[in-house]
Amino acid sequence: MPRLGSAPRWAAAAGRWGCRLLVLLLFLVPGPGGASEITFELPDNAKQCFYEDITQGTKCTLEFQVITGGHYDVDCRLEDPDGNVLYKEMKKQYDSYTFTASKNGTYKFCFSNEFSTFTHKTVYFDFQVGEDPPLFPSENRVSALTQMESACVSIHEALKSVIDYQTHFRLREAQGRSRAEDLNTRVAYWLSSGNINSKASFAMGWLPI
What residue range is the signal peptide (predicted)? Predict the structure, then answer.
C-alpha cells in the first residue's frame, strides 16, 4: 500500500481491484516539514489509498485536483488512526483541507472513482505535513539575522511562491490540453461522419449546437 513520508518507504501498490497505480509525477521532501506531491491514474470503479505517520500537534494540509477524465471529479476521504472521518467529499473537482493531528499514528486518505463505470481519472494531490524548517535556525544565536541572511530568507520564500505558481499553471495546462484533445477527437469524428451539411457549416466557421 502506498505510504508517504520518505522516498524508501513509499511504494506503488495495486488498488483494491488489482489496478496498477501509475505514478506520473512524484516529489518527496524529507525532513520535519515534509510534503508529498503525486499525480497518478485512478481507473474506473477503483479506489486508491495513501498513508502517512503523523505526530500529535502537527499541522497538515491536503490539496487535490482532478486533471483529466469524465467530469473531472473524484471522491475523497481522510481518516485518523482510529478510523474517525476527518474529511469526506463526494464528486469534487478540487479542494483543500487543513487539520491539526489530534493523536500520534497513521493517517489515511483515499481517492475513489467507484462511481464511474468506464472513465478513468488523473488525480494530483499535495499533502503537506508540518512547517518547513527555518532557513537559519534560531537556537544558539546571540544576534539577529544579518542583512545577507535576511535577503536569503526573502529569496527562499519568494522561490517557494514561484514553485506553487508553477505547479498551479502546470496543472491548468495539463487539464486544458486534455480538454482540447478530447474536443479535437469529437470534431474529427463529427467531420468524418458523412454529414455534408455539418461539414459545410464547419467550413463556414461555426458549429451547430
Answer: 1-35
User: Distance between CA atoms of 114 and 128, rounded to whole angstroms?
Assistant: 26
Pairing of strands 22-29, 59-68: unpaired
- The SS3 assignment for 32 reads coil
Which residues are CB-contacts of 13 (< 8 A; sequence separation ≥ 6)? 1, 2, 21
pLDDT in tens, 31-60: 335 667 888 999 999 999 999 999 999 999
Q: Are 111 and 125 in contact (CB under 8 A)?
A: yes
Mapped onto helix, strand or coil, the DSSP state of residue 40 is strand
DSSP letter for 192, please.
T
Q: What is the pLDDT of residues 163-183, one digit of tens each?
A: 777 777 777 787 787 778 878
